[in-house]
Each structure stands twice: as structure tokens, then as C-alpha cells.
Amino acid sequence: MFFKGDTPWRLATVRRLSIWLAVVFIALTAAYLIVGRSALLDVEEIKVYGLHHLTLEEVQDNFGFQLGDSLLSVDKDLTREKLEGLPWVRSAEIIRSWGGLVEVVISEHKPVALVMTKPTYWALVANEGTILTRGLSAPPELPRLSGVRAAGPPGGYLASDSSALLALLNAMSPDLSQRFSSIRREADQDIVATLVSNQEVIFGDEQRLAAKIIALSAVIDYLEEENRMDKKIDVSVPEVPVVRDD
Q1: Which of 4, 130, 157, 244 could form an SS bridge with 232, CB 3.0 to 4.6 Å?
Q2: Is the sign of the CA dihedral 119, 124, 125, 127 positive or negative?
Q3: For residue 224, how many other CB atoms are within 10 A of its CB?
Q4: Is the full-model pTM beyond 0.90?
């Protein structure tokens, strides 16, 4: 459509500009197709970082690309989504370099506790409740959470009745958490734990867990200095911790 007042010179300029833009678009499209299919931009090397529990084969099965594929075909978002669907993967980052290198950086969950799946079988769980494994008959030495619902399949989450026990563990220093062999919910919902020294720790309800942990640390330090092994440590009232040998 032309407007009144358009001059032949103006119309010719617009026509030349349209032709020039069309040529540029065609050239860029052709370059994209040619370069994208060129062996110079193939995936030449894949490096994977951060594997501790997963195997290389397990993550490779979820790449969606392989050596020799075009770099342009590497869908970073799709690959990250597939990798983060693996139970052990907390996060994944895909870095694509035009030199033919694709780097996959995996951050794995850290197991903090065990939860029973069926009698004598325990699953590893992460700090936010992700279930990492199926039930293991010979699990590693980690605090065992009991008095809660059984763990489901890997990739799922623990039931809400485990949240306070996980919160308790997450609030502890690594050195303190390693002292526990088990943490359980009693029938009255109070939290009771057992240290690897067989001493029992009474936390009471799930309120003020941080204060109770501070009180427990102080009591443990005191008992060790005094070379005492009292059987029960009650920090349910953190301002007035009680130790008993009954």
C-alpha cells in the first residue's frame, strides 16, 4: 500500500531495503544450517563433574545427546530437567562451548539419615526429605529415623511426620549429628534419640529445636570433661537440662 505523497525515489529506497533485508535473512539462515551441520561444531568431548554416588553411565543415559551430534542440537534445558529427575541429583548445569566441549556439572544430594522401607531394610534420605535409594539391607552408618511412615520409592519424599526429625538433624553441626545412631517419634509425638554411646537424649516436643541442640552440646561437653556417662540427657526444657543415670 502506498500513501499519497510517496515519491519514486522513496519507493525505490524502500524496495531496495526490503530486498537487502531478505538477502541478509536468507544468508543467515543458510549459514545457520551449514554451520549447524558442520563437523567443526560437533560435540567433540563431554566432561562430567560432581559424581560421587551416581555412575557415569547413569547420567549419560539422560543426556539426550552424544559425541558427534551437532552442538546446536544440545538442548541444555531439557538435559538439565532430565538429570534433575534422577533421585541423587540436586541440581545440574550444562555448559556448551563452541570448541566442541560440553560440560555437565552435577551437584548430588548428601544423605543425612536412614528411614525404613520394610523390616530390616533402610533407604538413604537427603536433608530435605528426598528418598535417594531403595531399601538397603546393609546401609551406611547414619542416624535412623523411626516412629514415622516408611520411605517410598527413590525420587519421592518422606511423609510430613518426618519433617521435625529432619529439621533437628539439619540444625546440628556435622560433628554432633554423627553422634546419633537413631532419632524417633514416640507415641505421644515427643522426640527421643539415642547416641552411638547408647545414651538417650530426650528432646520433648518439636518446639525450640535450635535451643535444645545448643543445650545438648553444652551438656555433652560437660559430661566429657567430667568423664561421666549418664544414661539420659533431657533437654526438653533447654534452659534447665537434666542428666540422669537411671
Answers
A1: 244
A2: positive
A3: 10
A4: no
DSSP 87: T
Per-residue DSSP letter, 29: H
Q: What ranges make up the beta strands (E) of 131-205?
A: 144-146, 180-185, 191-195, 200-204
Indicate if 89 and 161 belong to the same structural domain.
Answer: no
pLDDT digits (tens, 9 = 90+) for 146-193: 999 999 999 999 999 999 999 999 999 999 999 999 999 999 999 999
Q: Which residue, of 56, 82, 108, is where some domain finishes? A: 108
**Long-range contacts, stretch 191-196, CB < 8 angstroms, 24+ apart:** 191/164, 191/165, 193/143
- What would the grid cell of residue 104 be? 555437565
**Rounded Cα distance, 37 and 29, in Å:** 12
Whether the Cβ atoms of residue 164 and residue 125 lie closer than 8 Å to each other? no
| Domain end among 108, 123, 154 | 108
Same domain, 115 and 237: yes
Instruction: Quick: pLDDT tens for 40-63.
Output: 578 899 999 999 999 999 999 999
Q: Is residue 104 part of a domain?
A: yes
**The one-letter amino acid at 195:** L
Residue 116 Ramachandran class (φ > 0 left, ψ -120 to 50 alpha, else beta):
beta
Residues 223 and 156 in one domain: yes
Backbone CA torsion sign across 81, 83, 87, 89? negative
